[in-house]
Design goal:
The model has no long low-confidence stretch (mean pLDDT 96). The protein is built from nine helices and seven strands, in the order βββαβαβααββααααα.
Length: 217
């Protein structure tokens, strides 16, 4: 598992996850910083680098030295590493001390009206990123915090259809398969396979990831 050092914005490899780390949940935008970019001098000119620095700064201010970000902490050129990461992702979000949720399309002066329209709630991968973490803090485009998963649970439940007690506890033992599928029904992923892969943690299963298998996933 690779993590970003929040002071130096550099990658560190851990054989086992450390006891304290933060994790980011966000919508991918233009020029996101991926693993290979981290070793290039031109990375500082990429649009995504400003977001990377901002989330590192935010995590550091919250008291965390290490942070996991899906864009740059996975070497996606390695199919085995990518498969391991996808199969471990729910657990990584679950073990994180805090999840920083960045809503790029919600503004600090209008977050109450803008929250329900946030694209973040329509993405496939963010379903597990909402349920798995013990605590989520929501941030606006300007990196202003405006609430947590606990304080916003009623509104989030209304937007997503996820039961409030699941948002508070992460416990899905009594939730039916049909109910879980209904949470994902209105969400979408850029690749067809990810519609299945993004649900593995929700259903507690592991499977090989084979991009190219399309709807057979």
């Amino acid at each position: 598992m690779r993590l970003l050092n929040t002071e130096t914005v550099t990658l560190t490899f851990f054989a086992e996850p450390p006891s304290r780390y933060a994790i980011l949940s966000h919508r991918w935008l233009e020029e996101e910083v991926e693993f290979e970019h981290m070793f290039q001098a031109a990375v500082v000119r990429m649009k995504g680098y400003a977001k990377l620095c901002a989330v590192c700064r935010t995590a550091h201010e919250l008291g965390f030295q290490y942070l996991w970000v899906d864009t740059c902490c996975i070497d996606k050129s390695s199919s085995s590493e990518l498969s391991e990461a996808i199969n471990s992702m729910y657990q990584w979000y679950q073990q994180a001390m805090i999840c920083i949720v960045y809503l790029h399309d919600v503004h600090k002066d209008a977050w109450q009206s803008g929250l329900s329209q946030a694209i973040w709630f329509t993405r496939g991968w963010t379903l597990q990123e909402l349920i798995a973490p013990r605590q989520c803090i929501f941030f606006t485009q300007e990196w202003c915090s405006f609430g947590t998963k606990a304080t916003l649970s009623r509104e989030i439940a209304r937007i997503t259809g996820i039961d409030e007690h699941v948002l508070h506890t992460g416990n899905m033992q009594e939730i039916s398969t049909a109910r879980k599928m209904s949470w994902a029904a209105k969400r979408w992923t850029s690749r067809r396979e990810d519609a299945a892969y993004s649900l593995m943690g929700i259903f507690g299963v592991h499977m090989s990831t084979i991009y190219g298998e399309g709807d057979r996933a």
